[in-house]
Specification:
This protein has 297 residues and is α/β, with parallel strands linked by helices. It contains 9 helices and 14 strands. A 6-stranded parallel beta sheet has the order 3-2-1-4-5-6, sandwiched between helices. A 3-stranded antiparallel beta sheet has the order 7-10-11, with no helix packed on it. Strands 12-13-14 form a 3-stranded antiparallel beta sheet. Strand 2, helix 2 and strand 3 (53-56) form a beta-alpha-beta unit. The radius of gyration is 18 Å and the shape is globular. The structure holds 1,4-dihydronicotinamide adenine dinucleotide.
Length: 297
């Protein structure tokens, strides 16, 4: 069973996608009485697969879950940065972390509420779980957005491999050197000024959607489901996720997006890619931004 905490826009969209993909049974939990139950019923009526979907306002109902996805928290409003959510979401994340440690001590936890890299660290501390069992979803969404923009620019390519690492925020690092279209480096297909423009658009993609419709949840729900599937089905896909670093890429003591192997054990391996000088400089700036965010705690 997968438990999703927070049955708001991201939580309910993720529940719908996980249910329709038939990944596993879903327990939706929200403190707002009735919301999770209503969403669960609404999703069940879609009859898109035979997984069981249940709603609850009781944290103990997460018992027996293999994966807990935490989407509970305030969301950005137009003009806000992810860091603006820090204070409130810290309290919520820590309280939920304690519930998870008590009711699902063997689960893998996927933190989604923002600022995700910082909240993943708070979740790790609150649960006391080993680092491989607490991951953050952020860079996977950035990767979907970067892939979409490149594909659109090339007229709709499907065979596209890319990677985005770093902070889930304006300082993210889309790795152009690891971006291949049908096996060909993107650098051979688009000129560098166009690639840089797409990198910049990727960085502001979330804010662009929020400015237009107030929130973003379809893209995030897709990223959550891809990661959930790799964990529950033990697919061991290489996916960027925010994990606690202990020297990898030269950083320690923060959670930040890096490629990991996602399986039943969570982030089973951290993959250290070789970066060029420019990518290393950008990643250092990204780590600094997370460290500075933590200082405001
Ligand atoms: P929302 O306001 O629609 O839903 C949040 C839900 O959490 C509400 O239903 C609320 O009742 C519930 N909640 C609040 N405190 C709770 C608690 N202590 N226990 C259980 N439930 C609780 O917000 P939305 O749009 O779903 O966003 C949720 C979070 O996800 C925000 O922090 C947002 O910034 C973040 N987000 C992260 C993304 C990422 O890539 N990591 C992408 C999009 C959103």
């Amino acid at each position: 069973m997968i438990t999703i905490i927070g049955a708001g826009r991201v939580g309910s969209a993720a529940a719908m996608r996980i249910a329709c993909m038939g990944i596993d049974d879903v327990m939706l939990i929200d403190i707002a009485e009735g919301v999770a139950q209503g969403e669960a019923l609404d999703i069940a009526h879609a009859c898109c697969s035979n997984v069981k979907i249940t709603g609850s306002s009781r944290f103990e109902d997460m018992q027996g879950s293999e994966l807990i996805i935490n989407t509970a928290g305030l969301a950005r409003k137009p003009g806000m940065s992810r860091l603006d959510l820090m204070k409130e979401n810290k309290k919520i994340t820590e309280a939920i972390g304690k519930h998870i440690a008590g009711f699902a001590p063997n689960a893998v936890v996927m933190q989604v509420a923002n600022p995700v890299d910082i909240m993943t660290l708070f979740m790790l501390r609150a649960t006391g779980f080993p680092r491989e069992r607490v991951i953050g979803m952020g860079s996977m969404l950035d990767m979907l957005r970067f892939s979409y923009l490149i594909s659109k620019e090339l007229g709709g390519h499907e065979e596209l491999d890319t990677m985005v690492i770093g902070e889930h925020g304006d300082s993210m690092v889309p790795l152009v050197s690891y971006t291949m279209v049908s096996g060909k480096p993107v650098k051979d297909m688009l000129d560098i000024s166009k690639i840089n423009e797409l990198v910049e658009k990727t960085r502001t993609a979330g804010a662009e959607v929020i400015a237009l419709k107030g929130s973003t949840f379809h893209g995030p729900s897709a990223a959550v489901a891809i990661m959930a599937e790799s964990i529950i089905k033990d697919r061991k896909k290489i996916i960027p996720a925010s994990v606690f670093l202990q020297g990898e890429y030269g950083f320690s003591g923060i959670c930040m997006g890096v490629p990991v192997t996602l399986g039943k054990g969570g982030a089973e391996n951290i993959i250290e890619l070789e970066l060029d000088e420019n990518e290393r400089t950008m990643l250092s700036a990204s780590a600094k931004k997370i460290e500075e965010g933590l200082k405001n705690d």
